[in-house]
């Protein structure tokens, strides 16, 4: 039988009870186990001790902020950061011999985990038209090939430049400068699939795309909402901040269709108490919400707050703040007073009492923070939901003051920085004007393609050239079959990568692998050793300096690759000193300093311990939107109804994966091991659908088009998820997410709300499953 591309090694599925707490000793042991499979004890030690230290390596694992210098733990990393960094520091290598042995068609049949496990890419490779093999190519010829394709385009808009949030600020700035000097704003990024909905709603309502809280705010909040995020696996260092907040008396309300271990209890492995004690209870209340019910929840709470104000005028709402800082209150209030309780309860799956208790928690709290991630942003009503969260914060003036605010928890370690550097298909005019002043060319003004629209354009043959700066576009994108077909229509696809992934195997007519230095590695250029800079979830910009010897002498840094490509394509007459940029990243930062507000004197300030804290204008009472005020908005609550016999499927991360790259098939906290092809279903739904635990089923997507989307052969695992809501891992299920199913306004794929039916797989006559 032909192998599925994402088939896992044949281990038996084992299911145990989900865990009720996260981290502690097993987490540390687990991190070391994976790290030592990848690299030597000495290298693992070297990377881990430098992680998140002043002048050390910024952990590529997530975007959570580091404590202030002096308050950092000697081991300022988490289990998953450790796995992630040693996955990069691995001593395994992919060489030219490897590609001689494995044709591209064979590699396209390998699992994501297998591809990643082959190790670090070591030299530039090319796949020529008609060939089924990658072969070595010199850097000189690789740049020549790309420059030739780019100059032959009918229009610069036939090129697409994708960025994943791993890229540092200097590389991101260089890439967007090149794209715009070439003449296109086609700069899609992983953020289009990640926090685009947050950015859209926050820009509109508060005039900023970024979160408004610092670690200090979180430590001093009275009440923290954790909505649609799984910090135990995806932002483990957030648990330390929550532990601290709880010590200071904070209460926590977790809102999730899954009772994730990290939401319940945390045993901090950095403290003796956490290692041997029972740990800290994280959530004081757990709202077991239905997928997509968060808009209704916040509307319900907002309505109850308005009614509380009616009963005790002047005591509930922050009337002064509403008068001086906001607009649209009356229209919003009239609308929310009219929302139907039946809809709220149907949408959330919660009881009226639970929502009233939530209101009471809010009324007892002076300072409230709302944290959220993909459980909010990857829904049809994601923008409306974030807008409603903003309404909620504004009602009691929980914006722009200490201990309170909005905290969209970012994913990739520098996804926020990349946006600050201009990676966005629709950067504001002020940024483009600044580029023109600085470099003397007029950047294109028409908006470019985002991730979803880039795929549509490829499908229609309107894109000929694709360059990926980090990431795994083919696998991260929705509708795998559609995306793969679209990408194959490009004339040339090129990827600046550290590790092998599916985007190298599903490629254009010609394809290039451009191997690059990772963040752990020493980066030496003509002017000496370089560092890069990154910005975390809390707008702190700081340095990251690699320590290890590069995986191969043939690697170039991301900045070197982009500068040379730009020089080769645009020639030296472009007036941009690409060569100087490559020789000294400080020269890039000098330019950034003159373009990006808040980064003046960048080179000097960023090297101070702790780096630069960019101020969010909201915290100074400045709203940079059209109204010049914080906006209350009216949002229509639509109950997501799923046809009889169907489930609403969310696609999410296991504990042992980093985005498109599964490390192992373990999901320790959820009690699942041995296979990733599982679908978690409420026990009553399992019974109601006539299924049994462990049964093999296909997941069949149902969408308004007639296309059948099928993910084959999953095992049913009864699990305490909300009724009607199933869960399965990404990226194996991306095949089910229709390209056209996007969040309103932000165009973000709705990865957390896919309507599916579970189709039992017929047994074969020989007893095996078909
Ligand atoms: N170890 C590790 N760390 C990572 C990553 C990784 O893959 N591995 N990825 C990084 C990236 S890029 C990102 S964006 C973040 C992602 O961080 P998360 O957003 O935590 O990631 P997901 O696994 O997508 O989990 C979504 C959570 O939302 C819940 N959820 C789903 N639908 C709903 C809903 O409708 N309402 C509510 N209230 N909750 C819902 C799910 O049950 C789950 O707990 O993590 C970053 N950090
Ligand atoms: N179904 C579903 N799909 C999703 C999501 C979901 O929740 N469900 N989440 C979405 C989200 S939030 C995101 S952010 C995207 C992630 O999408 P991407 O960011 O595109 O994907 P990653 O898996 O992070 O990319 C991994 C690859 O990055 C390369 N890489 C790693 N480090 C470096 C480096 O330092 N430099 C360079 N040049 N390359 C490097 C390696 O080659 C590795 O194979 O996926 C999205 N897709
Ligand atoms: Mo993300």
At a glance:
This protein has 770 residues and is α/β, with parallel strands linked by helices. The protein has 32 helices and 32 strands.
Distance between the termini: 10 Å
Radius of gyration, in angstroms, nearest whole number: 25 Å
Briefly, what CATH class of the largest domain? Alpha Beta
- The CATH architecture classification of the largest domain is 3-Layer(aba) Sandwich
Strand order of the largest sheet: 5-4-17-16-15-6
Number of helices: 32
Return the structural class: alpha/beta
CATH topology of the largest domain: Dimethylsulfoxide Reductase, domain 2
- The fraction of residues in strands falls at 15-25%
What does this 3D model show about the protein?
The protein folds into four domains: 29-88, no CATH class; 123-193 and 424-516 and 556-600, 3-Layer(aba) Sandwich (Rossmann fold), CATH 3.40.50; 196-408, Dimethylsulfoxide Reductase, domain 2; 644-760, Beta Barrel (Barwin-like endoglucanases). 36% of the residues lie in helices and 16% in strands. It has a six-stranded mixed β-sheet. A six-stranded mixed β-sheet has the order 28-30-29-32-24-31. It has a five-stranded parallel β-sheet with strand order 11-8-7-13-14, sandwiched between helices. α15 crosses α19 and α15 (294-311) runs parallel beside α21 (382-395). The protein is globular, with a radius of gyration of 25 Å. The termini are close together. Bound molecules: ligand MGD (2 copies) and molybdenum atom. One ligand MGD binds next to α25, β16 and β24.
């Amino acid at each position: 039988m032909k192998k599925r591309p994402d088939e896992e090694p044949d281990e038996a599925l084992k299911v145990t009870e989900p865990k009720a707490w996260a981290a502690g000793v097993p987490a540390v042991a687990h991190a070391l186990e994976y790290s030592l499979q990848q690299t030597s004890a000495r290298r693992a030690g070297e990377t881990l001790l430098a992680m998140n230290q002043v002048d050390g390596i910024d952990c590529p694992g997530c975007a959570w902020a580091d404590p202030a210098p002096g308050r950092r733990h000697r081991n300022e990393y988490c289990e998953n950061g450790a796995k992630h960094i040693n996955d990069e520091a691995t001593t395994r290598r992919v060489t030219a011999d490897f590609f001689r042995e494995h044709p591209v068609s064979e590699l396209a049949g390998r699992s994501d985990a297998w591809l990643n496990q082959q190790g670090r890419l070591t030299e530039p490779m090319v796949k020529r038209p008609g060939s089924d093999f990658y072969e070595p190519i010199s850097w000189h010829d690789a740049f020549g090939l790309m420059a030739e394709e780019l100059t032959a385009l009918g229009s610069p808009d036939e090129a697409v430049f994708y960025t994943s949030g791993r890229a540092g600020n200097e590389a991101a700035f260089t890439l967007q400068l090149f794209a715009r000097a070439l003449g296109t704003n086609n700069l899609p990024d992983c953020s289009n699939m990640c926090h685009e909905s947050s950015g859209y709603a926050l820009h509109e309502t508060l005039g900023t795309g970024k979160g408004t809280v610092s670690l200090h705010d979180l430590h001093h909040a009275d009440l923290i909402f954790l909505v649609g995020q799984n910090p135990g696996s995806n932002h483990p260092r957030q648990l330390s901040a929550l532990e601290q907040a709880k010590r200071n008396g904070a209460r926590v309300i977790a809102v999730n269709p899954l009772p994730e271990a990290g939401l319940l209890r945390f045993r901090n492995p950095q403290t003796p108490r956490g290692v041997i004690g029972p740990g800290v209870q994280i959530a004081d209340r757990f709202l077991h919400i239905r997928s997509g019910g968060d808009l209704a929840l916040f509307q319900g709470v907002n309505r109850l707050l308005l009614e509380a104000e009616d009963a005790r005028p002047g005591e509930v709402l922050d009337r002064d703040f509403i008068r001086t800082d906001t607009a649209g209150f009356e229209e919003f209030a009239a609308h929310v007073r009219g929302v139907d309780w039946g809809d709220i309860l149907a949408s959330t799956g919660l009881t009226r009492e639970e929502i009233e208790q939530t209101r009471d928690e809010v009324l007892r709290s002076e300072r409230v923070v709302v944290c959220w991630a993909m459980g909010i942003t990857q829904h049809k009503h994601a923008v409306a939901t974030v807008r409603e969260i903003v309404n909620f914060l504004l009602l009691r003036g929980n914006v722009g003051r200490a201990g309170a605010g909005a905290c969209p928890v970012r994913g990739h370690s520098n996804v926020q920085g990349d946006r600050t550097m201009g990676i966005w298909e629709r950067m504001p005019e002020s940024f483009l004007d600044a580029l023109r002043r600085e470099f003397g060319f007029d950047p294109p003004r028409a908006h470019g393609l985002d991730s979803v629209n880039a795929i549509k354009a490829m499908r229609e043959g309107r894109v000929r050239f694709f360059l990926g700066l980090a990431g795994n576009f083919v696998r991260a994108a929705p509708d795998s079959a559609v995306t793969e077909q679209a990408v194959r229509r490009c004339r040339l696809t090129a990827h600046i990568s550290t590790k092998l992934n599916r985007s190298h195997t599903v490629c254009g007519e010609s394809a290039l692998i451009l191997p690059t230095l990772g963040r752990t590695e020493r980066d030496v250029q003509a002017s000496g050793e370089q560092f890069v800079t990154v910005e975390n979830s809390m707008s702190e910009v700081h340095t990251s300096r690699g320590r290890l010897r590069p995986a191969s002498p043939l690697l170039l840094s991301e900045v070197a690759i982009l500068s040379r490509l730009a020089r080769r394509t645009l020639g030296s007459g472009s007036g941009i000193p690409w060569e100087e940029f490559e020789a000294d990243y400080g020269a890039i930062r000098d330019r950034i300093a003159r373009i990006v507000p808040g980064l003046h004197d960048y080179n000097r300030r960023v090297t101070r311990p702790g780096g630069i804290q960019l101020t969010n204008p909201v915290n100074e009472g400045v709203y940079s939107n059209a109204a010049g005020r914080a906006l209350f908005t009216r949002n229509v609550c639509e109950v997501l109804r799923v046809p009889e016999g169907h489930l609403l499927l969310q696609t999410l991360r296991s504990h042992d994966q980093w985005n498109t790259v599964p490390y192992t098939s373990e999901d320790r906290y959820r009690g699942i091991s041995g296979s990733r092809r599982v679908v978690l279903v409420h026990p009553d739904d399992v019974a109601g659908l006539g299924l049994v635990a462990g049964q093999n089923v296909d997941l069949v997507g149902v969408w308004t088009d007639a296309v059948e989307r099928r993910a084959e052969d999953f095992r049913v695992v009864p699990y305490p998820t909300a009724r009607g809501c199933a869960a399965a891992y990404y990226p194996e299920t991306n095949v089910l997410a229709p390209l056209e199913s996007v969040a309103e306004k932000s165009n973000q794929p709705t990865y957390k709300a896919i309507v599916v039916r579970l189709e039992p797989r017929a047994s074969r006559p020989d007893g095996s499953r078909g």
